[in-house]
Amino acid sequence: MDAAAEISQESGFTGESGAARIQERLQKRHQERIDDAERRKEAKESRSVAEEKGDYFFGTFNKERESIEDILSSCSGADRAVLTQKLEEATAKLLQLQKFLSDSTMFLKPYDLRQAQAALQKLQTSLTETREEGLPKKKFAFRTRTKAKDKSSAPEADTSPDAVTPAESGTSEVDGSAASVQCGISNMDNQCLTKTAEEIQKQDVLLSHLTNCKVHLFGAPSTLHLKHIDSCEILCGPVSSSVFIDQCKNSTLAFPCQQLRTHNTTDTQVYLHVTSRAIIEDCRGVSFAPFSWSYPTLEEDFAVSGLDQNLNNWSQVDDFNWLAAGTPSPNWTVIPEGDRRTSWDP
Amino acid sequence: MGLLTILKKMKQKEREMRLLMLGLDNAGKTTILKKFNGEDVSTISPTLGFNIKTLEHRGFKLNIWDVGGQKSLRSYWRNYFESTDGLVWVVDSADRLRLEDCRQELSSLLQEEMLAGATLLVFANKQDLPGALSKEAIKEALALDQIKSHHWCIIGCSAVTGENLLAGVDWLLEDIAARIFTTD
Q1: Do A151 and B179 count as a contact with CB atoms less than 8 A apart?
Q2: A&B contacts, CB < 8 Å
């Protein structure tokens, strides 16, 4: 625009004789423009990094992709251990490649990005296929395992609040402790059953499908689960964490615990020592009184469980089906003092 | 520069993540949260509602939401889904009788559209109990191998001893970071 205006101006004033000069000036401007563009191009190139180029990205990406494909194709016919190792390697590489791609999204063109994602997707599919072919899934089933005899070697609960064990402590150790059968009693009618401290100490105990039974658990288990209990009397020593009750009716229960969770339970009396809170959900006719059962080694078991014997919130029950503040829940009551059991002898 | 890029850049500046911790009742969600934060775990009551903790870890600001797992609270879980970066699913590894419940609840969560982009960490908790199932058994019981929609990982841990809690959270952070914070 400026140039055009200048030209018309100059030609207006100087006429024919200025034509050569105009030519010259135009030439000069043109040269300046080219130089300027050149400079800018150079500056731009010096700023951009080699790694942030589509070419570099695709070079690396394809190399990695081929190496994963190689691993996968070498999988057929390999034995299980080798195969597992190879698949793991491929999975790790694939993850790395995915990360590389997501790191590169800032400078990739949308089309290239889509292409790379499609390639990754394809790799993922073929990895899954190879895995399913080589290592078919086992059906899940509970295994009966021999009971670990050496209970003292069970990991001591480290209750210091600041100690979050670092990752290096390893998964194998965690998995190793699973090699024991669950402790408990199931499917009994009209029985008197007893478990001793040696049997349940630090164990997770499950009582299920019991009818008309009297159960005495002497000792301090880690947790206690009661499920499908009908017309039973169940007495248990101090439970160091939670007691979980589901589908229980017409029964009498007594235990100390850290927390109590009661579900789908009707017409049941609980003689309770609880150091945090008891809750009920979908229950009717549940009544509470302070724990009053006693046996010779109760004090020691309290010490093993770590429960505070002087802290008992037995009467503070939260009902998940009754959240109205002020009015008490109709689903549970406190057993009047005169009606509480005082004698527990069989 | 698309909208997504702008959003990514904004998130990157804050380095903030929102983690949602869910699971059946009695799984140990609150205990994991408190143990991870270095608090006393012996006074924890069943969660009537939810807990939220904001803590700094590895240069990230984590907003961890721990929502009660009782049956009557599960219908409220969806209120917490929005903008969740990571889902922590906590399993009581010793509670064999409710594993099927656990599988169903998890699989219905994974179909939620609002959680579609979230990374899934499964904590096979209570490994300190002698009767606990291994993380492999939990993986099979929950059919984790069939999950194709989310990045996932299962880690055996114990909230009481603190074992492997760090390893799990670190994996989760790394996976989320790779997804939402692009490096400059």
Answers
A1: no
A2: 163
What string of pLDDT tens digits covers the 184 residues of chain B? 678 777 776 666 678 899 999 999 999 999 999 999 999 998 999 998 899 999 998 888 999 999 999 999 999 999 999 989 999 999 999 999 999 999 999 999 999 999 998 999 999 999 999 999 999 999 999 999 999 899 999 999 999 999 999 999 999 999 998 887 654 4
User: What is the ipTM metric for this complex?
Assistant: 0.86
Cα separation, A85 vs A97, whole angstroms: 18
- pTM of the shown model: 0.65
d(CA A329, CA A317): 9
Contact between chains at B26 and A140 (C-beta distance less than 8 A): no
For residues A174 and B52, what is the distance between their CA atoms, to the nearest angstrom?
28
B28 is in an annotated binding site: yes
Please name the residues between 69 and 128 in chain A that touch chain B, using a CB distance below 8 Å: 98-99, 102-103, 105-106, 128
Q: Are B94 and A223 an interchain contact pair (Cβ–Cβ within 8 Å)?
A: yes
- Report whether A28 contacts A3 (CB < 8 A): no
